[in-house]
Structures are given as structure tokens and as C-alpha cells.
What we know:
75% helix
Amino acid sequence: MFVRSPSSSRLQATLTLVPVAFVVLSVYVGGVLWAAGISFTRSSMLPNYRFAGFTQYINLFSNARWQVSLGNMALFAVIFIPVTLLIGYSMAAMINRGVRGENALRTIYLYPFAMSFIVTGLVWRWLLDPNFGIADVARKLGFENASFDWIVNADMALFTIVIAAVWHSCGLVMVVLLAGLRGVDDDLWKAIRIEGIPAWKAHLFIIMPSIGASIATALVLMSLTVVRMFDVVVAMTGGGPGIATDVPAKFIIDHMFERQQVGLASAAATTLLLLVLVIAVPLLYLKSRRKGAAQ
């Protein structure tokens, strides 16, 4: 019988990954480098490779719509990340206690994440529509003065997107944190019970620090959701009323394909990439440090 040597198996595995590596380097990395290069030119409808310094970045950060979109993204993150983390952890802690119907509960909690953000946005757009959604149902039930017009209110529309995003993402956070909770040593739980430590103190000061790698993973995933937020905004509000719910991703798409300002859109995309790196790299570093400490 012919037996493959470990070296031949590794060579075969390496050769199998070569096409994938080529695609990643040429398409993804190449695309990023091209966009970054174009952002330093005066490109408008078509690429123009004449160097123009930081002109596009100056125009970008003096653009009122870009400023609004950054503010919306920051406000969205400040609300979305803590609320999603709190609800996701609560669901994970409840399931970790061994409740009945655990498999059914995990499926129910994770189901919203199985839906695309477009579908999620359309569902919540209908639910929050002041003429056809929950408010209309309430009026038909006899509450004639019922009104809920946040989705068409410039001051409140962003919060409706937060509601939809939290509903969509809690299940994913629950799964990530549940995996961390299942890895906590049983002796630690026994010690907590013996000492009589209140549940909220145990989770806040003992359990959560011990699953720091899982929390860091959840934070990275939620941060990427914040930065990439586009589908749900388009589906629910289209960035409106006016530009009240505009976000950087929508700004980039609109200026790239509708306004045909390639240079400005590339500058915005490069800025957004730098924001992702600023957020993700420290969290990933923290995750790796915690894993190393655990080992």
C-alpha cells in the first residue's frame, strides 16, 4: 500500500492554496492598493493618475455629508455595541445554565442572523411604518391616538436602525459568548457558589474577564458590522430623511457609482479601511494575548 509522506501532503496542501492566495493578493490586496493610490489623484468620472497630494482627503473632511455620516456611525456604535453585547451575553448566560429546550432556544436566538441585512431592514421598515406597521395595528385595536413615527423623524430615524441591527446581531454574539462560557472551568463555578457571590458580581468581575478572548471576538465582529453598515440603512430609510441616517459605506457607494467621483469615493474608502484597522488590530492583539495567557 502506498503511503504519502508528511512532506508530500504538506506540498499538496500548499499547492491547493496557491490559487486562493493568488486571488486574495491580486483582487483584494490589489484592489485596496489601487483605491488608496487613486485617492491621491484628481480622478472624477474616470481614473486620473496625476498625483494631487491630499486634495481628495481635504475635500472629503470638509464635506458636510461625510461629517454627518461619520457622526451617525459613531452614535450607532456607541449604542449598538454595548446593547448587543449585554443582550447577547444575557442570552448566553441563560442558556449556559442548562435551561430546557436549549437547542430550540439557540435556533430561535440565532435565526435573525440567518437573514440578510436587506431582509431585516425591509421587515423592520414595515413594522415601524407609521401608516402600515405596529402603530396602525394599535389603532385598529382601539388605540386611536397611537403613533410611532421614528422612521420618518430625522431626529429618531437612526435609532430605528439600531433596533433592527441589535435584533439581527444578538444571536451571533450569543453563540460566540456561549462558546466562551462553556470553556469556563467547573471548579470556578463551584468556588463562586461556595463563596456565595451574587450572580451579577460573579459574571461581571470573574466570568467576563475569564472569557476575554470571546468578548474580543464579539467586539471585532460588531465593530465590523458598524463600519460595513449599508444594507439595513438602504432597506429601511435610504439614508433619509434627508441625510439623517447616512453612513460612510453609503456615502462611498453613492459617490463611486452615482455621482461618479472616483477619487473622493476612494479617499472615503481608504479612510474607512484605516478606521477598521484602528479598531480591529488592538482587539485582535488583546484576543491573542489572552489566549497566550490562558495557555
